[in-house]
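User: Predict the full complex structure for these chains.
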Amino acid sequence: MIAQSQVKWNQDALRALRVTRGFRLEDVDPRSTPGYDGDKHHGEVDLRAGLDQLAQYQERLYAASRGGTATDAVLLVLQAMDSAGKGGVIRHVVGGVDPQGIQLAAFKAPTEEELAHDFLWRIEKRLPGPGLIGVFDRSHYEDVLIGRVRGLAEPREIERRYGAIVDFERRLADHGTRIIKVMLHISPEEQGERLMDRLERPDKHWKYNPGDVDERARWGSYMDAYQTVLTRTSTDEAPWYVVPANRKWFARLAVQELLLETLEAIDPQWPKADFDVEHEKARLKATL
Amino acid sequence: MIAQSQVKWNQDALRALRVTRGFRLEDVDPRSTPGYDGDKHHGEVDLRAGLDQLAQYQERLYAASRGGTATDAVLLVLQAMDSAGKGGVIRHVVGGVDPQGIQLAAFKAPTEEELAHDFLWRIEKRLPGPGLIGVFDRSHYEDVLIGRVRGLAEPREIERRYGAIVDFERRLADHGTRIIKVMLHISPEEQGERLMDRLERPDKHWKYNPGDVDERARWGSYMDAYQTVLTRTSTDEAPWYVVPANRKWFARLAVQELLLETLEAIDPQWPKADFDVEHEKARLKATL
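Assistant: Here is the predicted structure of the two-chain assembly.
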């Protein structure tokens, strides 16, 4: 086992942050730190300590899959309102892992070709293979979030998608993919400050899009759409976790902890050699 | 400009390591550290300092491409004999950069479908878009290395490929991709020790392949094939760099420095806002 040094968690993040029956998004304080007793300083120390653990688990996960029998993979789905910190999570949590073990997919507005297919077509193509940690920066959930808020599809089609998503994710889970779905949850006030910061710094202008302000006007509709998503698609095979994200340090730490606890549960093992080690040593020695 | 803190380089790595006319691979000592005056300790300090610089350059490269005009990209091609340290370079150099700015492609033995196409077909699909740093873990050069040594194609076809590669890479360069081709160069003795280490550690068995010993028997043929590649395909648009790699710390530092000097030459700039900043501030304020 790889030692856990996260000392300030008072319960598993997988439990503290999980969306279960009766969950209401409006009850979550975006400034809170559910399950964690530490402050920003503790959080940063724990994040650093977790980087090594995560790198070690990932290497074992990858190695186990090379053994030929393990099909375990991890899929981290990140959804959030603009500026909630998806990019920071990818940089500071995922970035600590060997790039060879990560499969990152950022989903933008669909292309013409993608629109001509079912909404899960482009998703299927970016799924992580065995031994990899897949990270989705946005996902198929856009098709029931912006898709619903902006009326990009008929209500009946939106309705169909919830069920299609549950079936799709069950199939992935049955094949050995552990799915961690995270909504980074910020308050509209916090978003306002972050967008203003982008406007005030010339080196951040490229991150700003005038459309961001238009979407802000639809905050309530987005929260309604998220609530429906959380209610309809948080399953045993693919649970949702709502991570309060006004405090960036907590959002990063919490996503890291969700990954660590998931990998700890998989507990990947170094595969046994499928060759005769002593024989290979002798062959190699003959070449030295 | 981003300050360079690599103090122990006595000349640009882009110059010290470059393959130019008359280059002979057999003249390169795999234990040497061309262009660098420091020892392992200096190298590790410089590598750490370089991580931040590289991350900053990469962010600017990406930002500049979002501005819509810059098409600059970087393509790092890594070729080497087994165990020469490609994986370590990816982990310790590329791993320091935001994963969102990296496009990593590992090329294994081609599939049936890939073999049915021209050898550059699968390569084209994995090229980095504007603003990205592409990293090829093996590449189209396999088709003139193992392809030649193991006779996987007719000599005439192998011959054709050198010219096709030069034309292909010129086209990429014309579109704004800076190509850095690196051969990590170890001695057969060093490889022997590294393979033995894999055999002696159960947590490394998964990295060992009995075929590695068979390839060792063809070391001379591989060096001949590399020499031809270096002679025929090191061009102004896409130069080769031979990085002595018996010392892992130097190989990592040298590849990092090649990337840093290349990005410094591009000198990417934050793009100007394509919207009225004051107007947007006012719109945003109205929502606070």
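Strands of chain A lie at 73-80, 102-106, 133-137, 177-185, 240-244.
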